[in-house]
Design brief:
Blueprint: H1 2-6, H2 10-23, H3 28-41, H4 46-58, H5 65-74, H6 78-85, H7 95-109
Helix pairs in contact: 2-3, 3-4, 3-5, 4-5, 5-6, 5-7, 6-7
Length: about 120
């Protein structure tokens, strides 16, 4: 898969991930990779968002939050993205890591409703 990505064959890498997920549909890392590839390809279909949601749901930490956030922002789902940032699992993130997640949301969606500028 890495060779396909390096060669610019994102479609081939996506198909390979789909095949791997057939064998292990709950593999969070594979779901995350599929969601990330879909974003790189500019494919904003439901499959990428579903994969990002599944990866985050299966993740006991927070490593897949960024990909889910990027999918939500790409679809102008600002309220859902803000809800994601309010997820209790993200409360354990360091301030700079949380800022790295908040900055793209603010840039794409503006300040939260009711906030003062």
């Amino acid at each position: 898969m890495v060779a396909r990505i390096r060669a610019g064959n994102l479609a081939g890498a996506t198909e390979l991930l789909r095949e791997l997920l057939t064998a292990d549909p709950r593999a969070a890392d594979l779901q995350h990779e599929l969601a990330s590839l879909m974003l790189r390809r500019g494919d904003l279909g439901a499959e990428g968002l579903d994969a990002a949601r599944q990866a985050f749901a299966a993740d006991e930490g927070t490593q897949h939050a960024s990909t889910l956030l990027r999918h939500l922002i790409a679809r102008d789902r600002c309220a859902e993205a803000r809800e994601l940032l309010a997820d209790p699992r993200l409360a354990t993130l360091a301030a700079e890591t949380l800022a790295e997640l908040q900055d793209p949301l603010a840039a794409a969606c503006g300040p939260p409703p009711g906030s003062r500028q």
